[in-house]
Amino acid sequence: MSADHTEQRAGSALPPYDPVASGQELARIGHHQRQAIEGRSLVFRALAAAGVGHEQADAIVAQVEAGAVAGAHAWISESSAPHGSDARFEDGWHEGVRDVARLLLRIADNTATTGRGLAASHALFLNPVQRQPAPAPQDTPKETAPAPALDPAAVLAAAERCPWALAPPAERHWPDGSFLDTALSAVRPEEQAGYAERLQAFAVQHRTRLEDLLRAYGPGSTPASHGRYALVGQPETLVILERMETAPFLLRGTWDDEEEEIYLDDLEFAWGPHTRLSRRP
Fold first, then answer.
1. Residues 101/106/107/111 CA torsion (nearest 10 deg)
2. Is the pTM higher than 0.85?
3. If both were cysteines, with which of 36, 37, 77, 124 could 193 make a disulfide (CB 3.0 to 4.6 Å apart)?
4. Where are the domains of the chain?
5. Are 62 and 112 in contact (CB under 8 A)?
């Protein structure tokens, strides 16, 4: 092999995986997501103050968010392989660009047509707090425990009404709710009102996919016999999957702080979400 060809291949090589850099990237993504949540909340409040209805507010925010994804699509589509790359590397580069561009287009399309009900949920979340009068000083208890944002029992009950997503109780690996707190902590404030109903709607929408998941990876399957995919069939896993589709970066950031990654990595691999955050091939 010539020296020129060796140098060309070296110039085309991708940098090695850096766990520190990867962690920093996830932290930056999480920061942008938190800012987006705060910004969306501000927009909903401003639109409500201007007399804009919930449906129109949802449409406006969805259009802006879809436009941001479309901008990323344009930027990716115009990218090119590093200068001096060989033909095979360029072919692989452009194939990857096309795959990412198609994925971004689907995300833009979905963003423009989904997300309905967020403005109403946001209003329901804020209004009870705003309407509640401040208690008189003598009526204020010395210590008041904050009410939970979501009722885990209600969420589990909603999941149990979707048997096509669940293994029989005797075949489950943990008592109900073992991972529920971690999953629910990835439900954003504006999504909490009516979340149990939206969870059931998600299960109905993905019924065939959930049935396939349970059959292929659930208790009694060949993969499960090797001690993997332990979350498949658990009721709280319905919440994890819904979050995996709706807020994957937020879920991953929350999970990394609380639970072992292998459980989420296995579930992510079996479910095959559009946005895959694990390093598993």
1. 140
2. no
3. 124
4. 25-120, 149-271
5. yes
